[in-house]
Amino acid sequence: MPVAPARSQFSKREANRGAWTSEEDQKLARVIETHGPRRWKLVAAKAGLNRCGKSCRLRWLNYLRPNIKRGNISDQEEDLILRLHKLLGNRWSLIAGRLPGRTDNEIKNYWNSHLSKKIKQKENQSKFPERDQSQDLKNSTAAMHSLAGDNGGTSRKDEEMKPDFSGDGFLDSFNEGPLNLEWMSRFLEMDESWFSFA
DNA sequence: AATTTGCCCAACCGCAGACTC
DNA sequence: GGAGTCTGCGGTTGGGCAAAT
Fold first, then answer.
1. Whole-prediction pTM value?
2. pLDDT at A158 over 50
C-alpha cells in the first residue's frame, strides 16, 4: 500500500535532528511516565520536542527505557546472538527479544561491527587453510568456537539444509516473552534438525 | 603536532503491516 | 471497504573518537 504523505502539523524540515540532549531526554521521559510509551506523535507534541514521533520512539526504546543493559556484550550473549542469527537471520528485533535489556539496534550494530567480521574471518580460514591461523585462533572467542562446529554434531551441512523459520507459527511461539540466557543457550544447542518438525 | 584513516554507535530513512476512522 | 495514519523493522548514514601515519 502506498503511504500518503503525512498531513500532520509536524514539519520534518523544521524538526530537531541529531543527538539528543539530556534536557530532551528528561522531557520525553516525563511525558512517557504520564502517557505511556505509545501514541508517539502525541508524546512528541506533549513533550514540546521538535522531533517526530518516530525519533522519540527510537530514543525511548534504545536509550531511555528502563532495564536497558548498556556496555559490553558478554561471551554468553555473543554466543546467543550467533546462534539466533544462524536460525533467524537478520531478524534483529526477534534476536533482541531473547536478550533481556538489549535492543535490536545494539545487536544490529554489534553484529555489523564485530560478528560479521569474525564470521568472514572464519570463512576465509576455511577457504584458505594453508594460511597461518595461529594468531587468528588466539583472538577468536569461545563463541566462535561453538559456531565453527565444535558443538558436537549440531552443525549444519550447508545453508540449503536450513529449515525455514519465517513461518508465523514458529516465530509467534518464539516470541513469547524473554527467557533466561542459560536456558536459551541450552535450547539452541539442541540438534537444530528438531526444528524442522516444529 | 597535525593529518588521515578506520571503527563504533546513535540516529535517520524508507518500507510494509496494523490500526483507526 | 478504503483511505489515511501510526508503528515497528531492517538498512544505512554520519559524527565523534582513537589509533595510525
1. 0.69
2. no
Q: How far is the CA of A33 from the C1' of C13 (A)?
A: 31
Give the residue extent of every domain in chain A.
12-64, 75-197
Protein-contacted bases of chain B (C-beta within 7 A)? 7-18
Q: Is the pLDDT of residue A124 over 60?
A: yes
Average pLDDT estimate for A63-69: 85
SS3 string, A43-59, reads: HHHHCCCCCCHHHHHHH
Residues of chain A by 3-state class (helix, strand, coil), percent to 5: 60, 0, 40
Place of cell 506523535: A41
Residues in A 103-162 whose C-beta is less than 7 A from nucleic strand B are: 105-106, 108-110, 112-114
- Residues 47-76 of A, Cβ under 7 A from nucleic strand C: 53-54, 57
Secondary structure E strands in A16-150: none
Contact (CB, 8 A) for A74 and A41 = no
Q: Name the residue type at position A151.
A: N
CATH of domain A12-64: 1.10.10.60
Nucleotide nearest to A117 (CA to C1'): B7
Q: How far apart are CA A172 and CA A90, in angstroms?
A: 17
